[in-house]
Specification:
- The complex is a heterodimer of chains A (361) and B (309).
- Chain A has 361 residues and is mainly α.
- Chain A has 15 helices and two strands.
- Chain A has a two-stranded antiparallel ribbon with strand order 1-2.
- The longest helix of chain A is centred in the N-terminal third of the chain and has 27 residues.
- The two termini of chain A are 20 Å apart.
- Chain B is an all-alpha fold and 309 residues long.
- Chain B contains 14 helices and no strands.
- In chain B, helix 1 runs antiparallel to helix 9.
- Chain B is globular, with a radius of gyration of 20 Å.
- The relative contact order of chain B is 0.21.
- The chains are: A mainly alpha (361), B mainly alpha (309).
- At the A-B interface, helix 7, helix 12 and helix 14 of A face helix 4, helix 10, helix 12 and helix 13 of B.
């Protein structure tokens, strides 16, 4: 008879081992999935995980790694703060979109000025936009006790419609011959988020990602706020007695994650994406949830998880080209990863025991 | 302009528009009554939508489609159940995973099914009642699943209120420790509730792809599963109010679609936001009354059960 016995505290060994195990299990299950789709599983796994780094087109795909990982890491670091405290902001996708729309709007308002102040202004507007969008669930949660999960998620759909309204209306390129979508930032040098070193994929969004990792680490391990976040997540009652105000914590956690998601959106729209368009929303806000969990809600872990997840994106595109693997397969693959991670977590919190339960008579 | 909207047709299409959300919400209500918070409704719905669509297209029978959809949704729920009930993972995170996985899996399964029309489901032949002047068109000209969903609401209400099994289900949701001490199998009961919820969500998804739209497009549920979750909160876990909530949201959806068609001077995008914004508004109004919201929620909602003795 197999049974589970709760550990007094989570096992450190298993906490680090589960993400690795989960990746391994996902590769196996993914291989089965690809085999079912009629592809050679070994070739598919190699195309996704190996070829982008060391394969034939590696010189093209390696910089892409930083481009894709940047927004994922920025958003996930913000989300991890809230997740640790039991505050579930799952609407990062919406905050990402609003940050992009606000930031792009601020920049385009001054077209074609060449002032060096424009890009900093856009950064500010992007962060503020994401922050404001996240403050809606925060205020409703604090003031009316409304579920932040449902409100933040609903706001993703609202943000999607705002994005479409902006690309058809307010931000539409006046010289775009009637096509929806804003001006391209590549033709607007003062507002363009160009690569800092050409050919590396390093742009201001990636720099922000590294800063967010460092900032998140310092905040969590060295600052009283990080301590409060950890206590609130592990022992809400103890936190209340220690004087942690749940309302303030909710507002700050949601605010930080919203601002970071907004920043990610701004850097994406002014750099890799190039313009506000109807297909700008790419699901980074949702994938970042997987990244946050895969990184064990720890900034350094998130950095690694973000790079790995970016690898599956690029490898997925490569597999789409070379093996004709449908793009949805990668989405299912990423979802599976989170499942395996959550399943293997049982080893961190519980011990497996064999034998019958002894009952006192 | 607005005069071009026919109120009779509006109310008739309201019932059709509400049915998917109603099915998903009533299933989720049973799940939450058992003390489990399954945030994966959206994922179960979309998987139900595609499995139902594939089965109906391949077999040529919508009935087979709906049966397959219920199985597909239940399988997804089983996955959630194994993770949260047996491996004791976090319910919120697992629910999110279920949605993300479901969206990916469904678009993978749906490759090659875009742009096909599924076999049609005819309106139920109710004889002369369907020919009644106004009432006939509003109430008696729908397909069998609309009436089925209404019957399901009534059955759920009676099940929770009058049956012994319903009492046990509620006990498990209110205090799993007490229910366990009384000898009830908490995990087994919760798994059964989850399977029911998954089957309902799957049916709701298939209603979208087989009757309401009827077509397969990626991500076609567009938040319906999340709205269903919100409706359960709105209904304060009461079956009859789930019906009210679902028809209210169906009404808003149909009204904004009609306004779009009538060419009102508001841009389409702003009208399409309406159902989501109204969901938020209603959630705020319901949860603002703290004492009532707290009284009605099952006490063990979202907590995992682990029998240490």
């Amino acid at each position: 008879m197999l049974r589970l016995e709760r550990r007094p505290s989570a096992s450190r060994f298993w906490s680090t081992a589960t993400p690795l195990l989960a990746v391994l299990a996902t590769m196996i299950a993914g291989g089965v999935l690809f085999a079912l789709l009629g592809k050679d599983p070994f070739v598919a796994i190699r195309t996704i995980f190996w070829d982008p780094l060391f394969g034939q087109f590696a010189s093209y795909s390696r910089p892409q790694l930083l481009v894709k990982a940047g927004p994922l890491i920025v958003i996930a670091v913000g989300l991890s703060l809230g997740f640790r405290a039991g505050i579930w902001n799952i609407g990062a996708e919406g905050q990402y979109i609003i940050g992009a729309v606000c930031g792009a709007g601020a920049g385009l308002a001054f077209y074609p000025s060449e002032s060096p102040l424009i890009f900093p202004l856009m950064i500010l507007a992007g962060a503020l936009g994401g922050w404001a969008w996240a403050m809606i669930p925060a205020i409703l949660k604090v003031r009316f006790n409304t579920s932040e999960i449902l409100v933040s998620l609903m706001l993703v759909y609202v943000a999607g419609h705002i994005l479409s309204a902006a690309s058809f209306g307010l931000l539409k390129n006046p010289e775009g011959m009637g096509f929806p979508g804003s001006r391209n930032f590549q033709q607007f040098p003062a507002a363009h988020n160009a690569e800092i070193f050409a050919g590396t994929g390093m742009h201001w969004g990636t720099v922000t990602a590294f800063l967010a990792v460092i900032g998140g680490y310092v905040l969590l391990s060295r600052h009283i706020f990080g301590f409060q976040v950890r206590v609130a997540g592990q022992a809400p009652r103890a936190a209340r007695f220690a004087g942690v105000s749940p309302g303030r914590l909710t507002a700050i956690c949601l605010g930080i994650s919203g601002a970071l998601a907004g920043l990610a959106g701004l850097f994406e729209v002014s750099g890799p994406a190039g313009q506000i368009s109807t297909d700008f929303a790419s699901g980074y806000g949702f994938t970042a949830i997987i990244v946050a969990f895969l990184g064990r809600l720890h900034p350094v872990g998130i950095l690694l998880a973000g790079l790995l997840m970016a690898l599956t994106y690029i490898g997925g595109e490569l597999a789409q080209l070379t093996l004709n693997l449908p793009s949805a397969a990668i989405q299912a693959f990423q979802g599976m990863l989170l499942f395996f991670l959550l399943a293997f977590d049982v080893f961190a919190n519980f011990r497996l025991r064999f034998g019958r339960v002894e009952v006192a008579r | 302009m607005i005069g071009s909207i026919d109120p009779v047709l509006l109310i008739a299409s309201l019932m059709v528009a509400s049915t998917p959300i109603l099915l998903a919400a009533i299933g989720e209500m049973i799940v939450e009554k058992a003390g489990v918070l399954n945030l994966g409704v959206e994922g179960m719905m979309i998987v139900g939508a595609i499995t139902g669509f594939i089965a109906a297209v391949e077999s040529g029978s919508p009935l087979v489609g709906f049966a397959a959809a219920a199985c597909g949704g239940a399988l997804m729920a089983l996955l959630f159940g194994i993770l949260t009930q047996i491996l004791l993972s976090n319910q919120v995170a697992t629910g999110l995973a279920l949605t993300l996985f479901g969206l990916g899996l469904s678009s993978l399964m749906g490759q090659g099914y875009n742009g096909i029309r599924p076999p049609a489901t005819a309106a139920l032949d109710l004889g002369p009642v369907s020919d009644l002047p106004v009432l006939g068109k509003i109430l008696f000209s729908h397909d069998w699943l609309v009436y089925g969903s209404l019957a399901l609401v009534a059955a759920t209400w009676a099940f929770l209120k009058y049956s012994r099994a319903g009492l046990i289900l509620r006990a498990v949701g209110e205090s799993h420790d007490a229910a366990h001490a009384l000898g009830y199998k908490v995990i087994r009961i919760r798994l059964m509730a989850l399977l029911f919820g998954g089957a309902c969500a799957g049916l709701g998804g298939a209603y979208l792809s087989l009757i309401r739209v009827p077509q397969w497009t990626e991500g076609m549920t567009a938040g319906a599963g999340w709205i269903a979750l919100a409706i359960v909160v709105f209904a304060s876990w009461k079956a009859e109010r789930v019906l009210l909530g679902a028809y209210l949201f169906g009404g808003v959806t149909v009204l904004q679609l009609n306004l779009q068609a009538a060419g009102v001077a508001i841009p389409v995008q702003y009208l399409s936001m309406a159902p989501y914004l109204i969901t938020i508004l209603v959630l705020v109004i319901i949860s603002a009354d703290r004492s009532r919201a707290a009284l009605n929620a099952p006490a063990s909602l979202g907590q995992n059960f682990h029998a240490s003795r």
